[in-house]
Design brief:
Layout: H1 3-13, H2 33-58, H3 62-73, H4 77-104, H5 134-166, H6 168-191, H7 196-229
Helix pairs in contact: 2-4, 2-7, 3-7, 4-5, 4-7, 5-6, 5-7, 6-7
């Protein structure tokens, strides 16, 4: 049996008769999926604050405080809070999807499961899933890396514009690091489904710093607004 045939045999052995994996790629942990996702979200927020505050305190000049005063004077802190809420909404929706990904045992890179409808009384055909082997499999995973990048760009792009207004240089550096990590993710993801993890996690750390800067903008602007409104 050649190498390609062996890989195909292994692929078949790890799936049921309709093509669904026998085991979820999620680790067997006692904690529910939502708790794992909430924990990672909180860790990202903490990491972002840990790096964002030194940037604000030690790498900023007078222009930063002038911009924050402008934001607070115009009541724009709420705009920054709104951007953060949109991001948290996406995180909540991803958590719901992750729960059912685990329950259904639909592993990455598959994003949907398609059913082939057959005549009444006919046995069901296997579900339509992503090809995972060979060049077609590598293409599917590389393409999935592109789509994943595009899924994150709207929220991150909003963060870049808002936080970048106050902290243009740090945000530019973090954005460049984010892109490099995403390219790394695409290259490694193309080779294997688990290869996505390193580049993805590093990119999220870069994004967390931008988020931390955005939250500083929101907090400072609201503080200035409330102080001005106080009797």
């Amino acid at each position: 049996m050649d190498e390609k045939a062996k890989l195909l045999a292994m692929e078949v052995e790890t799936r049921d008769e309709r093509g669904i994996p026998l085991k979820s790629s999620y680790p067997d942990l006692a904690a529910p999926v939502w708790l794992i996702y909430v924990s990672f979200t909180l860790m990202g927020l903490a990491f972002g604050q840990l790096l964002a505050w030194p940037i604000y305190l030690y790498l900023s000049d007078s222009r930063v405080d002038e911009k924050l005063k402008f934001l607070g004077g115009q009541g724009l802190g709420w705009l920054y809070v709104s951007a953060f809420l949109l991001k948290m909404g996406a995180a909540a929706l991803n958590t719901v999807a992750a729960q059912w990904r685990k329950e259904s045992r639909v592993n990455i890179p598959d994003q949907h499961v398609y059913k082939v409808f057959t005549p009444a009384g006919s046995p069901p055909l296997p579900y339509v899933m992503f090809e995972t082997e060979g060049d077609l499999g590598r293409f599917n995973r590389a393409q999935r890396a592109v789509q994943n990048y595009l899924e994150y760009v709207p929220a991150l792009g909003l963060y870049v514009v808002l936080a970048g207004y106050v902290f243009p240089r740090p945000v530019c550096v973090c954005t460049a690091l984010y892109i490099v990590c995403r390219i790394l993710m695409a290259v490694q993801y193309a080779q294997s489904a688990t290869g996505r993890q390193k580049g993805f996690m590093l990119s999220q750390l870069s994004a967390s710093v931008i988020e931390g800067l955005l939250l500083i903008c929101a907090g400072k602007a609201l503080q200035i607004e409330f102080a001005a409104a106080a009797p």
